[in-house]
Amino acid sequence: MNIKQVIPRELANEDIAEAIEHYLxxxxxxxxxxxxxxxxxxxxxxxxxxxxxSPRYAHELNLPGLRSWPLARYPHLVFYVEHSDHIDVxxxxxxxxxxxxxxxxxxxxxxGDAH
Length: 115
What we know:
alpha+beta, 4-stranded mixed sheet, 4 helices, 4 strands, toxin-antitoxin system
């Protein structure tokens, strides 16, 4: 089984930084570190069998190939698209957000290989 490189977009990195800052501002350094660990585990998972993520939002938003995978123990979803040579992480969003609105912003600027 080939492991694909997981490449987060700028917006995904901003989402990650925002989540970490939230935990740190709440004086929850262990939670911030746990979030990073859960994210690393997620990236390792989607890099192996990327088709295991949920296609729910791909169907809802007519965005073929879009998948999501939840972070273990954290209320966040990682949204990604598989390409022939890598996994393109679009967003890392808190599950309470309006997913369609946040994802359509990315899709509007998608060139198919932005990273």
